[in-house]
Design goal:
There is one protein chain. The chain is α+β, with helices and mostly antiparallel strands. Helices cover about 20% and strands about 30% of the residues. Strands 6, 7, 8, 9, 11, 12, 14, 15, 19 and 20 form a 10-stranded antiparallel beta sheet that branches. Helix 10 packs parallel to helix 11. Bound molecules: alpha-D-galactopyranose. The site of alpha-D-galactopyranose has 11 residues, from loops.
């Protein structure tokens, strides 16, 4: 529900559990009056009063001695150069050469549903799921218009924000900063939670107290990247999994981003999220527009667990698209970890034969099937089959796999080019580069300049040829390096800083071609494991390979971190022949994700095969519960040295699946596990023991799990159903 109180000049954006309130102050300054737990009224002007005496804060000359300055007022969308000395959400360099920017309210509209954002991937909503407010603001001197777009997912609880800038003036301008969201909060008493990592150790949880000044995260890798995920949460000091105020923000963008919080001397916090202004400058001729990515905001006073569930429900219902949004995904086996580049048709068919016997649905052929690629030094860009490895070509191999009753999937890395490739020899200028500088190499490869239409045409034609001629039902889309020496041979010098954004829009264009031309293909995104795990990618691929690290114990921290904002059905997770733990724990951990296998099934012992068959049955048994149920993190790996645990609860609260993994031997320690999210008045039967407990007992008294999974690497599942 979104309302405008004309008398008070106040907008009220309500969701199920939050209110976001904006006021139009004198001379049409937009102020952020409140964001927090849902409140009934809007008597909030008193809350926006700030003393400006302490920092020489400048004033609007028409305001006489009034205690108002953009420097200290809670600005709804902070602008550069007009008195607000805090971190700016918006800055435009005008044709006079200065960057003084001053947006003021002009008009607004409120409507049901949600606009789409053109080529920018974003959430979507039916008319009865969301309300949208568009506030038009303008910078009088340049004529630059910025429409601040707010969509409230009324039942879900999230708010999506973005900004559309149009040059309505007579002269060209350059956008220097255009963040998607800015929130001014009247407190600095927060911790900041972010997800940091590296290859094979993605999305670890970092929690730090906010201090004065600017702090936050960014990427300038050309992609969202391994090192920081485009997610941050500000949590009140007493907040934990189950209680306390939490502000979460997740940017629906796969390019360079920045999310930062600035705490000032007076004890306020400004949070901004959007495109990283470093290496960004966007030229706008009169009448041209620029649409920012979308930032998803979630506020809850029920802690991090509830924040995660709000993100999860939003992404499941209003972000992921296509056939596999609701259709069961095929259970796949991928050959990469077992074979690397060393495979041929017969080996793959032997995998498929065993996979069929074990009950799997699909064989995915990973890297190494094209050009003359027998290691990672060549052939990216040459997307035609290597007949030495696959005699008779793809058709012959896929027929053999399909004849066994298995689907077939394939690996691409469309945005890359090897220096040793036909494509590079024909078009050396097609890779990302700048004049007169060496091109850095990473994994023996360069990045293709997909900001260029001609480059995209070529790559798409090659992919189209493969996908339209063969029965391919899954594509793994990889991206195995970051972008350095960034520039495009076809952009003029004055527009080179548009490259990074144009690059990612080029990627989105290619992905859109894939999903719209082949809507039945299941796409799994990947980037050296989970290096491009962001909500924008989920618009094209309902699942993303979470990490190249398939060791189940290492996976625990990766999956706990990822789950802060991404649902289980999006996390690519496979059972592999990794070093630690038995297959039971490997299966239990991979079950918290898409579930699949990445091993040589010919090498499984008879006992292991029996176990795998059981796991395949469990995949089907628990599929709906895990993919569409609510996640409750019960014991996080950072909080307990010995055990960690999580559970899924069905929306009707009639089923719950609890998984406990022992990370370190803990014999002798008492472990009482209190469950969460159950109906206190329902009675649940433990499938294994037949014991019956009320939800109230399970949540308050808890289960004694001390003697379960006692040894390092052991795990156990507890399946509860309400009578
Ligand atoms: C990346 C992926 C792996 C695999 C290899 C192939 O590292 O994360 O799963 O596809 O590339 O080169």
């Amino acid at each position: 529900m979104i309302a405008f109180d004309e008398k008070q000049r106040i907008f009220k954006i309500d969701t199920r559990q939050s209110s976001y309130i904006i006021g139009i102050y004198r001379e049409n300054y937009l102020l952020n009056l409140y964001y927090g737990a849902k409140i009934p009224d809007t008597n909030l002007w008193q809350r926006a009063k700030r003393s400006k005496s302490a920092s020489f804060s400048p004033s609007n000359p028409n305001f006489d001695n009034e205690d108002f300055s953009t420097d200290v007022a809670p600005m709804e969308y902070s602008c550069n150069g007009s008195g607000d000395f805090g971190v700016s959400a918006f800055s435009v360099r005008n044709s006079d050469g200065n960057s003084v920017t001053d947006l003021r309210y002009v008009s607004h509209k409120i409507y049901k549903g949600k606009p789409d954002l053109g080529a920018m991937p974003c959430t979507y909503a039916a008319a009865d799921e969301a309300d949208t407010l568009e506030i038009t603001t303008v910078d009088k001197v340049t004529g630059v218009e910025a429409v601040l777009i707010y969509t409230a997912f009324t039942k879900n609880g999230a708010i999506a924000r973005s900004v559309k800038v149009t040059n309505k003036g007579k002269n060209p301008v350059d956008i220097e900063r255009v963040f998607s969201a800015c929130v001014d909060l009247p407190s600095a008493d927060f911790d900041m939670i972010t997800l940091y990592g590296r290859h094979a150790k993605e999305r670890c949880v970092e929690k730090r107290p906010l201090g004065r000044g600017v702090q936050g995260i960014f990427s300038k890798r050309g992609v969202s990247g391994h090192s920081e995920n485009p997610f941050a949460a500000l949590t009140e000091k007493n907040a934990d999994e189950d209680k306390g105020g939490v502000y979460g923000v997740n940017l629906v963008y796969s390019g360079n981003f920045e999310i930062c919080a600035e705490c000032d001397y007076s004890g306020t916090t400004r949070l901004i999220a959007g495109i990283n202004p470093t290496d960004f400058l966007w030229h706008l001729e009169p009448e041209e527009s620029f649409q920012t990515p979308e930032a998803v905001l979630v506020y809850t006073d029920k802690g991090l667990g509830e924040m995660s569930r709000i993100f999860h429900r939003l992404y499941l219902n209003n972000l992921i698209r296509g056939r596999y949004k609701s259709e069961k995904r095929p259970l796949l086996i991928n050959n990469w970890e077992a074979t690397s580049f060393d495979f041929d048709a017969d080996k793959l068919v032997s995998f498929a034969e065993r996979a069929k016997e074990l009950g799997m649905d699909m064989l995915v052929m990973d890297d190494g099937w094209f050009g003359k690629r027998n290691d990672d030094t060549s052939s990216l860009g040459d997307w035609y089959v290597n007949e030495e490895k696959l005699p008779g070509g793809l058709g012959a191999l896929i027929k053999r796999v399909n004849d066994l009753g298995l689907k077939f999937g394939i690996w691409f890395e469309p945005e890359m080019i090897s220096p040793d490739s036909e494509l590079y020899r024909a078009h050396p200028d097609w890779c990302v580069h700048v004049p007169n500088r060496d091109k850095s190499i990473s994994r023996h490869q360069y990045v293709l300049d997909v900001s260029r239409e001609d480059v995209r045409e070529n790559i798409w034609a090659q992919m189209y040829h493969i996908l339209s001629n063969y029965n391919i039902e899954y594509v793994k889309w990889d991206f195995n390096r970051n972008i350095s020496e960034a520039g495009s041979a076809v952009l003029p010098p004055s527009r080179q800083k548009e490259f990074f954004h144009r690059f990612i829009m080029g990627t989105y264009d290619l992905m859109n071609r894939l999903t719209s031309t082949f809507p039945d293909i299941l796409v799994e995104n990947c980037s050296g494991g989970g290096g491009r795990f962001d909500p924008a990618m989920l618009c094209y691929s309902p699942q993303i390979w979470a990490s190249d690290n398939t060791d189940p114990i290492e996976r625990l921290t990766i999956q706990f971190g990822t789950s802060l904002c991404y649902p289980a059905s999006t996390m690519g997770a496979h059972v592999s022949a990794s070093r630690r733990t038995g297959y039971e724990t490997k299966g239990n951990v991979a079950l918290w994700g898409t579930f699949g296998y990445e091993l040589d099934p010919n090498k499984l012992t008879e006992d292991e095969k029996t176990l795998v068959k059981e796991q395949v049955k469990e995949y089907h048994k628990y599929y709906d519960l895990i993919h569409y149920g609510d996640l409750y993190r019960l014991i996080c790996p950072e909080e307990n040295a010995y055990k960690c645990a999580w559970s899924f609860v069905s929306p009707d609260k009639n089923q719950a699946l609890v998984t406990i993994v022992t990370m370190r031997e803990d014999i002798g320690l008492l472990h009482i596990l209190k469950l969460k999210g159950l109906d206190p008045d329902k009675f649940y039967t433990d499938e294994a023991s037949g014991e019956v407990y009320s939800g109230g007992l399970l949540m308050n008294a808890g289960l004694n799990v001390s003697r379960m999974a006692e040894k390092t690497g052991e795990s156990v599942k507890i399946f509860l159903t309400a009578n």
